[in-house]
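Build the 3D complex.
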Amino acid sequence: MDFALETKGLTKTYKRGRIQALKALDLQVPKGCAFGLLGPNGAGKSTLVKTLLGIVRATSGSATLLGVDYRKVDSRRSVGYLPEGHRFPSYLTGRTLCDYFGKLSGLRGDELKRQIDEKLEWVGMKEWADTKVSKYSKGMAQRVGLAQAMLGNPQLLLLDEPTDGVDPVGRMELRQVIKRQREKGVTVFFNSHLLSEVEQVCDRVAIMHHGAILHQGTVKELIQNITGGQGTLHVRFAVSRVDEALAQKLGTIAPWGQVDGGFMMTLTGAQGITPVVDLLREQKIEIFAIEPQHANLEEAFIQLIGRQANKSVGGTH
Amino acid sequence: MQAFLAIVQDTWRQSKQQWVFLILLVMLGSVTGLFCAGTKVYRHNDGSDEKHAQTLIWRWQDKPDEKMAREDGWEGIYANHISKQQGRDELLLEADKKVNEIEEDALVLKQEWMARRREIGIDPVEARFAALQRERAAIQEELTQAKKDNAPEDRLKAIQDRLDAKSSEIAPVETKLNELNLQLSEIDQRYKPVAQRLADAEKAKSDLSLRLMKEAREEVKRRSADISDLQKALEATLMDLTTFLTVLTMLGFIAASSGYFPGLIAQGSVDSVLSRPVSRLQVFLGKYVGGLALISAALFACWLATFVSMGAISGVWHWRFFSALPMTLLSVALLYAIVAWVGLMTRSATLALVTGYFFYLVVDTAVSVMIQLAPMMPLFSDMKWIVTLAEIIKATFPNFALMRASAVASVANVPIFEWQPILVAFVWLGLLLYTSYSRFRRTDF
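Done.
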């Protein structure tokens, strides 16, 4: 399989090895896919991207970008990057910013002008192209950031929190732009905290925690492997008061709690439904909803990170 | 190359947004314009030969000021250089030392004299004597006035009696004072020849100074016999302009350039640049050369405008004026390298700005004093280690005053150029750029 991005034992340590930001990372991103890198804050997601682009120097290991050694300048020739929390120079306008980065990517003349107009139009910023970056809202700056990343028609797009600060409509528009890129065969590498976003955009994901990859594969595989493919059932019931005896009985079956104007019990799989319904009927408690919940990425992510947290707590004690 | 030019262009965009850079450009243009538009050719019309028939003066002057004539200034600079080159300064220093030694002898005697005065208690006697004399003078005045006013005889007699009494009162005090002064006369006797020696030495020094300057001036006349006054005046004007432009550029460019590197490496800004297919060397050099290219373009415009204007005004096309440009740029490049170094190490534009001014205004002045004035001062010239230290600093530490002097000297049509400051500057420039780039190359952003 051809990989747009591949790392082998990529390691980054700080303070003479005392802090391990990347732990011998092995990661493969196939060409043409939309790949989501997930992880809690401080997992090392941005460090990984920066290391691949030479912004941060790796301590050991190797990596390739589109088959070229990441340490070579040429490896970045067909790569677009939108950094997280970027602060583009305030003296530039959207157009001059694209002009600057386009030239750095090797574009020139009419082709550069054409691409600047095209990319700004794609992200809906053509109207604001001649306004100073300092006057942009966070969402506008993100859009221009995405435009500059797409200059030169890169084959690999590394997007670090691309929808950060963008309103819901804007997020949808940016997703469309990213989707179009995918359709053109561009590999999109997506760092995001918004799991629903990743689920909508990406077909492959990796979950990173404390500098290591915990899991990588398709979204489906991830959900299946972590949650066992089982969804949950939410049983909603209304009662004026839950006495101690009932509370004990409910607790032995599944977790439950008070939610807007009633109570809700969460069951894993369908096996526990009969005893719950029997119990509630016996107590003459009104059941007003039984809602099946499909297993999703967010659930899988939380479960996986939760397990890791438990492991590390267990390991500590 | 294109990426490099993109960074240069970005530096220009950044500069255009800085009022300090625009002010610098306006000031450079104004000074150049003042020199060019304010200068005119003056023809003496006094029968002088062709070489001395014309000079340059300010447009608002009626005729050349003899003491401030531009060709005279040119000859002064050349004469100073020749004096230094031929060791005349050392002769003057020797004479200075001699005066200093005699002054020290005189000081010893003066201290002895003061101690003796205190010992014999002459000061209160002198004060008493002076007070009595003032009182007698007042009575004498009163008597004169009374006579003028035809005062009655008895009043005149009364005043005369008071005058006599005062004279009688003064006599013993005067006698006492004379006795005491006699006790001081031995020291006075010893002081007299020293004072004479001091006067002789000072006169000798003054004569020597005049003679040496005269000799230097004569040598300048001899060496520059084929250079016209107009040429000399033009060169002097261009030297002055070089000085002004260099100082202005240095002061303005510190402020303009202090934000270039901290801005480049600011968190969130450098990532986008480094993610492009450009090497860190290209980014570093692009920013450094970019900043330098801008100020070079501005200075070149000033130089060209001056060359053309002065050529048109005087009819003398002085190509050597352009040789001061690389010298000036070297000074700017070195100062920019210092500012960039601090900016890269600290990521602070403010610290780069403050350090730039501190280096240029305080450190450089201190180094100038140390290497140029200290060896010439009699007090320090006796201390061998100070002279040695000054030589070491001169050979190892960059000095903008010396570099400016070299830049100014390169304009003149005579060999007064000094290479040493230029070589030291090149070594420092190399070291600063190398260490700055090493830091930039190794940093994780």
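Chain A touches chain B at residues 50, 53-57, 73-74, 76-77, 79, 81, 83, 85-92, 96, 100-101, 103-106, 108, 145, 148, 158 (CB under 8 Å).
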